[in-house]
Specification:
By secondary structure, the protein is α+β, with helices and mostly antiparallel strands. The chain has 5 helices and 14 strands. Strand 9 and strand 10 form a beta hairpin. The radius of gyration is 19 Å and the shape is globular. Bound molecules: fe (ii) ion (FE2). The site of fe (ii) ion has 5 residues, from strand 3 and strand 8.
Length: 251
């Protein structure tokens, strides 16, 4: 086990030689009739309103004031590779401000992103994502969370970068988590994509992105951190980047 700190100060634990435990029995995806492909006859379809069973951790998203430095660090030290770059509207010439990063497993496909990093005024956890069996598990699991009084953040929709069907929730501490299914897997033959970072470009379909998901509601704490970051100077977030970030929310 090796504990490292990335340039933003996040603790990273690299582990090797773990014991394999027998996998827990997974709830099978529903048998679905799609188009003319009929797999289910003489049987009804029932999706139980129950907690969605998590199959695995998919990815983590971090906000960092030192995006390029952190990206270099993860590529250099962990060999991660970029699946997609995003840039602030009108600032492509200043380089990317978000990267979706995957593991380099050669010819073995790996998740479109295991880590995603975005430039912002704070160094913080944004969300983590957990794979569930299928769309019904997301929707029925979401209904269960709503019945328990949990706060829905955004969804259900389908992302563009990574293509997964998503649904975002907040726990009582405002910690954001994502249920997802049907994400992209790429081997190393796929080159990185480039696109502007816009609120409308976060999904192919689904409800409009919420302020809650974007964490765009100003708070005294956010303003304090923003002023501190802008004054600090020892990071990559400057006034022009702030203008770019504000454009993201409205484009
Ligand atoms: Fe996500």
């Amino acid at each position: 086990m090796l504990d490292l700190r990335d340039p933003a100060g996040s603790l990273l634990r690299v582990v090797a030689g773990l014991d394999d435990f027998r996998a827990q029995a997974l709830v099978a995806p529903l048998v679905v009739n799609s188009g003319r492909t009929v797999l289910r006859t003489n049987a009804v379809q029932r999706a139980p309103v129950a907690p969605a069973q998590v199959h695995r951790l998919g990815h983590v998203v971090l906000e960092t004031t030192s995006f390029q430095q952190s990206l270099d660090w993860y590529q250099h030290n962990l060999g991660l590779i970029v699946s997609d770059f995003l840039f602030f509207p009108g600032q492509r010439h200043r380089g990317p401000t978000m990267a979706f990063i995957r593991c380099d497993r050669g010819a073995t496909p790996s998740d479109h992103h295991t880590l995603a990093m975005t430039l912002g005024p704070r160094n913080r956890y944004v969300h983590s994502a957990y794979q569930v069996a299928d769309l019904d598990a997301i929707a029925a699991g979401g209904r269960y969370l709503a019945k328990q009084g949990h706060r829905h953040a955004w969804g259900i929709g389908r992302h563009i970068q990574g293509s997964q069907i998503f649904d975002y929730w907040r726990d009582p501490d405002r910690f954001m988590v994502e249920h997802f299914t049907d994400g992209d897997l790429f081997d190393t033959s796929i080159e990185a994509g480039w696109a502007p970072m816009t609120a409308s470009g976060l999904s192919q379909w689904g409800p409009p992105v919420t302020r809650d998901f974007l964490d765009a509601t100003p708070s005294p704490e956010l303003v304090r951190e923003l002023v501190h970051t802008l004054r600090d100077g020892g990071n990559e977030f400057d006034l022009r980047r702030l203008v770019g970030l504000l454009k993201v929310a409205t484009s």
